Amino acid sequence: NSQLWTFTILPDREAVLAVARETMVFFEELNRSAERAWLRQGLRLLGKPELARYHAEYYERIKDGIAEFRSSGRERLFHGAPAAILIGSLPGATTPAEDALLATQNILLGAHAMGLGTCLIGFVVAAAQRRPAIKVRAGMPAGEPLYAVIALGTPAETYLRSCGRSAPLIRVTRAGG
Fold this sequence. Notes:
49% of the residues lie in helices and 14% in strands.
């Protein structure tokens, strides 16, 4: 119960776009690396398949998103959200990631109760782990861990019911068997 989480608010569209642009710089650099087949293959041979996996799963979508942002100004990262919250943690917490993610879930539930739309933006978290300038652009210290980013805004659509969910995998284990 150390409660050392931090909340950095991006209160307007301009602040959100500044973080989106800084994140885009990271992904432009990553895409340049991912374009090099020899680099992907070499890293894979060294037991580091992450760049090849990124290239197969995300490269085209990221490339298209960056091109769209450059040509039309439409950014896909934050889905046009007018505000965002970055959740981090100060040093000293015994379970900082878990604390931050529990706080994140409470924010998501509270926003929903207030009629706001939310979306977790994992691409910013992943990029900020490798490019601290993203956190600095948002107003966080470079060394502070970032665990979640929430885009916030008024939903463009109203749904009469929630979307369908896949059935979860549930296991029951009995002692001795």
